[in-house]
Structure formats: structure tokens, C-alpha cells
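Input C-alpha cells:
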């Protein structure tokens, strides 16, 4: 078969370079531009990496045009319907679904790594009570690096895997404690007889004074939400984890960097922004069309939060599943529940926006964050915890991507170039002469 190449000609000098075209298993091909600088002296310019594949990966594939998402080849719809979050964790980390013994072994490992070192509680206590839980997450997850000095050889696959297990296992405890500290509630310790999602609800809402009964529907819904958020290929936070890790920083520090990146409202902070927006709409008394018009107005920086995606130019498949989940949960709650109004506004807003030419022409559809916030509220999870929930679920994706990168022979320290637009060389003038 002839090698597929692309020839780039410099119209100024007439020089040419032939660049290889790389074929993925599915999805668009990529031009290998590495020889461009060597042969022609040029870099490529791509702010925000809209057209750049930063690595090769066998973990997650998404087709934004079709609206499909697969982990290790398995469609997200099938995993959400039939799998469990811990099974998905195993799949993302190891590449294959586990057999029964492997699954049991994995559950056992995760269950027995959920406790935090007793000293960790002092990190929490060092924060102000009104600290945002994400601020606590960034600090405490980074601080995990200080507890495993003897097990942080990133060139040893077994030690890397142990760090992955520790992170997946401890994240619910850290996340719940960041909430408990904020609320002035005593820290609860993990329960080994509960599933991952059940234990998280217990860590969040139980008290030492009485037994806590987990609502099975809420635990199931949470497990599905965790599956939907587990990985999403090279998004901002995952790319941050890879970039931080490419300098051979330890995995806890790299994941803390990912949490920081996730915090922004354009990424993981969007579900918090959605609920704030729905509340503002509800309290404003203005029509939904008013808000849609506001989002379209280029002189107004208001955007419909939970709408649009860098990659999905079709309905986000995760949003479809989560919308059904929200229906199921709200159907079970009494119609006068306090979250029903926000959910009704969300459904109506989606309808108005999807019929609007502005949104149609730009392929702006609801994304995963559009309905997740309403579900969290109905579980009793406060708005400030929404991005923490995302971080908890995404940890497995981050650490799987980091682990893949560490085992990749092509991995080098990430070091993008720039198009310099500053001053040309000039001489320093002393302060008296300026
Ligand atoms: N409301 C109104 N207009 C929008 C919106 C929106 N939510 N999103 C995009 N647009 C417009 C944008 O103004 C631009 O219009 P024009 O072509 O006239 O200049 C066009 O659509 C393309 O948008 P863009 O900002 O160039 O697209 P992007 O790929 O850079 O941004 C995005 C993607 C997700 C940051 C953006 O759609 C957005 O800010 N959405 C709201 C925040 C949100 O929901 N974020 C969660 C993302 S999904 C969760 C995750 O995976 O992290």
C-alpha cells in the first residue's frame, strides 16, 4: 500500500516537505508535523489546540459530529445501562473488562484503600470553614504526594498502578470530607460493606448518631453519573494532567493540576453555572426567549451554560442519558419538590434554544452539565460540590491517561511553541532617563 503523505510547499522559497499522514482506528487522520520545523523551519499555529492531536491514546474515542462516545471501544450507552462505575474504572485502567475473579480482586483493592491517613484530617482543618470545596480538593489531593514517598517511582508500572488505586479509592473520602468540613459536620469513615456510590452517599450524609439508609435509586443514579464522567479523551483537565505529568511530576501532583483545570466554568464548573443560571432565570420573571436572546447578543457576555461543546456538534450522548435519569428521579419525588421548577425551566429552555436558528446554525446542543446539576440538587448535593463530583468521577480517566503516557515511548516533556508578538530587541534605559 502506498504511504499516505501530504506535501507542504513553501511558496516563498519553493522548498518542499513530505509529511506522513497517520491513520487512527476510527476518526479523522492526522498529519505528522514533526518534520516541518526541521525541514522548513516553521512551527504550526493552533491556539486552543482546535486542530492538533497532542498524543496517541487507546482509551476513549468520541465523534462530535455523530454524538458518540466509547471507552476502550464500548459505547457509553451500554456501559451506563449494564456496567458499574468500578467495572468501568477497571476497563479504563487496564484496557479490558475484568472476569469475575479480576473484578472481585479490583473491588477488594479499591475498598481497602478508601481510608485516609489520619494525619490528613489536619490538612482539612487548616482551611477556612467557608473555603470552596474545590480549593480544598486542589490542596488535599496534591498533599497526598507527601504520604507515599516510598511508592512514587513513576517508572515502575506496579507503583503507578498502586497510585491509581489509591486515587480512585480515596477520592470519595476526600470529596465528602471537603463538604463535611465546610458544613462543620464530623468526618465519617468509609464503609467496606457498601458499593462505591453508596459509600460516597454515606460519607456525605450519614452522622455518627444514627444508621444511614442509602436510597438505592440515588446510588444507582450516582453510579451512572460517575460512569458518564469517567473519561473524555484530551479535554482541558486531561491535557493538563498529561502536561504536568510529562515533566515526571508525581501522579498526585499531576491530578491536583487536573482538578485546578477542571474548576473553570467553561469546563467542570459548568454544572454549577447551569444551576446558578436556572435559578437566576426562575427568579427574574423574564421569559425564556429573553434569556435566549441575551445569550445570542454579542455585546452581552451571558452564555447559555450547559450548551455547546468544543467537540460535540450534535447532542452530547451523555446529556441524553442524564436527561432520562433526571426524569426518573424527579418522577419519584413529590411534584412540589423544590427542584422541580428548575428542572421544568431546563426542559423548556432546551426546547426554546433548539428551535432557535442561532443555536441550530452553530450546532449548540445541551452538554452533560445541563441536567447533572438538577440531579445533584435532588440528591441533596449542594451547588458548591458539583465540580467536586466531576473531579471524583474523572480521576480514573486522568490517571488512566497519565499511566498510558508514562508507558508511551513517544512521550516527551510537553513544551508548546509560540508566535511571538512582543517588542523587538531594544536597549534598557535607566529609570532616571525614562
Ligand atoms: N451560548 C451562546 N452562544 C454560544 C454558546 C453558549 N453556551 N456556546 C458557544 N456559543 C457560540 C459562540 O459565541 C460562537 O459564536 P460565533 O461563531 O458567532 O462567534 C460559537 O457558538 C462557537 O463557540 P466557541 O466559543 O467558539 O466554541 P468553543 O468550542 O470554543 O467553546 C464551550 C465550547 C463549551 C466553551 C462553549 O460552548 C461554552 O462556553 N458553553 C457554555 C459553558 C459550558 O456549558 N461548558 C461545559 C462544556 S461540556 C463539559 C466538559 O466536557 O467539560
Amino acid at each position: 500500500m502506498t504511504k499516505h503523505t501530504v506535501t507542504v510547499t513553501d511558496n516563498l522559497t519553493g522548498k518542499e516537505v513530505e509529511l506522513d499522514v497517520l491513520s487512527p482506528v476510527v476518526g479523522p487522520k492526522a498529519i505528522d508535523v514533526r518534520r516541518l520545523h526541521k525541514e522548513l523551519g516553521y512551527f504550526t499555529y493552533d491556539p486552543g489546540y482546535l486542530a492538533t492531536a497532542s498524543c496517541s491514546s487507546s482509551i476513549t474515542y468520541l465523534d462530535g459530529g455523530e454524538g458518540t462516545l466509547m471507552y476502550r471501544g464500548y459505547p457509553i450507552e451500554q456501559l451506563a445501562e449494564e456496567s458499574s462505575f468500578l467495572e468501568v474504572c477497571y476497563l479504563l485502567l487496564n484496557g479490558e473488562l475484568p472476569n469475575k475473579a479480576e473484578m472481585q480482586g479490583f473491588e477488594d483493592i479499591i475498598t481497602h484503600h478508601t481510608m485516609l491517613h489520619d494525619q490528613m484530617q489536619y490538612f482539612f482543618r487548616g482551611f477556612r470553614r467557608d473555603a470552596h470545596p474545590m480549593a480544598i480538593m486542589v490542596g488535599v489531593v496534591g498533599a497526598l504526594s507527601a504520604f507515599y514517598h516510598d511508592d512514587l517511582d513513576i517508572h515502575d508500572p506496579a507503583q503507578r498502578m498502586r497510585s491509581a488505586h489509591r486515587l480512585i479509592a480515596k477520592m470519595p473520602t476526600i470529596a465528602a470530607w471537603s463538604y463535611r468540613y465546610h458544613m462543620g459536620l464530623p468526618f465519617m469513615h468509609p464503609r467496606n460493606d457498601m458499593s462505591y456510590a453508596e459509600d460516597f452517599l454515606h460519607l456525605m450524609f450519614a452522622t455518627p448518631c444514627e444508621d444511614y439508609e442509602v436510597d438505592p435509586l440515588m446510588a444507582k443514579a450516582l453510579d451512572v453519573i460517575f460512569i458518564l464522567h469517567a473519561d473524555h479523551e484530551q479535554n482541558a483537565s486531561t491535557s493538563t494532567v498529561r502536561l504536568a505529568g510529562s515533566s515526571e511530576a508525581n501522579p498526585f501532583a499531576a491530578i491536583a493540576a487536573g482538578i485546578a483545570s477542571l474548576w473553570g466554568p467553561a469546563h467542570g464548573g459548568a454544572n454549577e453555572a447551569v444551576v446558578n443560571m436556572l435559578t437566576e432565570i426562575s427568579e427574574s420573571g423574564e421569559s425564556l426567549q429573553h434569556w435566549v436572546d441575551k445569550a445570542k447578543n454579542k455585546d452581552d457576555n451571558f452564555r447559555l451554560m450547559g450548551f455547546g461543546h468544543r467537540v460535540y456538534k450534535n447532542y452530547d450522548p451523555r446529556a441524553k442519558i442524564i436527561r432520562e435519569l433526571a426524569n426518573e428521579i424527579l418522577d419519584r419525588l413529590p411534584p412540589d419538590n423544590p427542584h422541580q421548577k428548575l428542572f421544568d425551566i431546563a426542559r423548556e429552555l432546551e426546547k426554546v434554544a433548539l428551535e432557535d436558528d442561532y443555536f441550530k446554525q452553530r450546532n449548540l446542543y445541551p452538554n452533560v452539565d445541563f441536567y447533572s446539576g438538577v440531579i445533584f440538587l435532588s440528591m441533596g448535593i449542594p451547588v458548591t460540590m458539583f465540580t467536586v463530583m466531576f473531579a471524583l468521577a474523572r480521576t480514573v480517566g486522568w490517571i488512566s491517561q497519565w499511566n498510558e503516557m508514562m508507558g508511551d515511548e513517544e512521550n516527551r516533556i510537553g513544551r508548546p511553541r509560540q508566535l511571538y508578538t512582543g517588542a523587538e530587541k531594544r536597549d534598557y534605559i535607566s529609570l532616571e532617563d525614562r
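The pocket of carboxymethyl coenzyme *A is lined by residues 232, 235, 266-268, 270, 295, 303-310, 362, 364, 367-369 (CB under 6 Å). The two ends are 67 Å apart (CA to CA).
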